[in-house]
Every structure is written in C-alpha cells, then in structure tokens.
Amino acid sequence: MSKIKCIITYDGTNFCGFQIQPKMRTVQGEIEKALEKIHKGEKVRIQASGRTDTGVHAMGQTIHFETNLTMLDESWKRALNTLLPDDLYIISSEAVSDDFHARYDVLEKEYHYFVHNTVEPDIFKRNYVFHYPYPLDIEAMKEACSYLEGTHDFTTFSSAKATVKGEKVRTLFEVTCHKKDEQIEFTFRGSGFLYNMVRIIVGTLLAVGQGRKKPTDIKTMLEAKQRKLAGKTAPPQGLYLWKVNYK
After folding, report:
1. Of all helices (H) and strands (E), which one includes residue 174?
2. Pairing outcome for strands 2-10 and 57-67
3. Which of 105, 163, 201, 222 is deepest in the core (most CB within 10 A)?
C-alpha cells in the first residue's frame, strides 16, 4: 500500500459541505466516487485536513488516501481530474510517507473571508462574497483583530452546535483586516479552529465596524466564554480555506 497526498480546490456553492452524507452531493463523496472508478469498484476512503460547511470554498484543502495501485505522483492528479466535476479540482498529488496524516499532522491553517462593502449588491459575486451594505470603521476592526491574536479560549466564538469535547483553547498567529476599493478581506491563520469560529468572529468584527461593539469588547468576550456576547454568524459564501501547512 502507498499513501497519496493531494491538494484540492473547490467551489462550495453546490456542495452540501465536505463530509460525505447519504443522498447529498459532497466534496468527499465526489472524490471517493472517482477513486472507486479508478480502483475498479473498490471503495477508497479519504482523510482531510478538516471539514468545510455547505457553501464554503477551498483554495488549498489537503487530503490523503491509501492505495494498492502504482502510479506516478502526477498521474493521480490527471486521473482524478478526468473524473471529477468542474467545481472540484486536484491541484497536485504526491506520494508521502506512511506516517503522514492530513488531519493530525496539521501545523496551521489559513482562512480568508471576503466582504463586498457597497450599497448595491453585485449579483455575479453573490456566491463568493458576503454583501454588507453598511458603512464600516476599518481602523476599529483592525484594532479588534489585534485582541484575537495569541492563545485564548474561544468558547464565545464557537457555535452552540459544536460537538467538540474538551477545551476550546486555540492559537491564532495572524488576524488581519484590509479594505481595497469595495472589498474587505479578513485573514485568519492559526493552529486550529472551532466550528463556525471564523464566521462568528467576522460577524463580531462587522458589529465593531458598525459601532455596535467596541474593539476592546473582544477581550471581555474572550474572558466571558459566552456565545451570546459575540456577533451573528457571517454566511458561508464569503469563507475560503486558503491553505494548510504541515510539520
């Protein structure tokens, strides 16, 4: 058996998330269906760096799978892309050591979130950005970002539906906010993320930008560990899993 690592990209608009679900179109389901054809009916299970929700996109998701077939590294990329739909693409494929794991060996992940900050919506961007028509104080949002960096308990910024057990301490190495013309780009780089964590943080930062919360409120929210203190969960279409770095 050999282990193959792939970096993949996908448009999450028409997927019911990454994780396989019965009778639902998912990223995992499409890849495993293609692998089953390549393996002549044998089922092959993939492992991913993490799961993305319905409507969330990926520029650099990482997966691995085990196979008893022998192919050149890049041949896996060509074979899979021949069978995959147009909204899912294998960027690269390579053989890795037996002890590699796409999920457990993650060193850090990077997410980007895009907001279209203009009065009128752009209907051609509706599946790829969050249209937010209200004036925003970018400097206040940048200050709020700085309080999120470092190691904290992010219970306040975790969905009440989260199934994770144990502590909710995570380390964010970078939290930034930049505006260019009508587009705001948030960058989040960290050791790990809780369920809906990025989207809840974005919703909270937008509340800061509107003046409904103060930048220093972030510190109070982190200490309180209460979801109700944070802002609304921003919608999925503005979120992108940008890249995953490994040990």
Report:
1. strand 169-180
2. antiparallel
3. 201
**Pair of tokens at residue 173:** 């190495």
Tell me which residue has tokens 């058996």.
1
- Catalytic residue numbers read 53
2-96 against 107-246: fold identical? yes
- Asked if residues 63 and 48 have their Cβ atoms less than 8 Å apart, the reply is yes
12: helix, strand or coil: helix
Decide: 4 and 94 in contact? Cβ < 8 Å. yes
Check whether 224 has a pLDDT greater than 80. Answer: yes
Encoded tokens for 216: 């220093």
Per residue in 98-115, pLDDT (tens digit) is 999 999 999 999 999 999
**For residue 164, is pLDDT > 70?**
no
Q: Is the pLDDT of residue 227 over 80?
A: yes
- Give Cα 19 to chain centroid, integer Å: 13
Tell me the Ramachandran region of residue 78: left when phi exceeds 0, alpha when psi lies from -120 to 50, beta otherwise. alpha
- Rounded CA gap, 19 and 236, in Å? 15
> Which of these, 94, 105, 48, lies nearest to 241 by C-alpha position?
48
- Alpha-carbon span 209 to 232, nearest angstrom: 13
Q: Which two tokens stand for residue 172?
A: 């964010």
CATH level 3 topology of 107-246? Alpha-Beta Plaits (3.30.70)
Q: Indicate the domain borders of the chain.
A: 2-96, 107-246
Q: Which fold would CATH assign to domain 2-96?
A: Alpha-Beta Plaits (3.30.70)
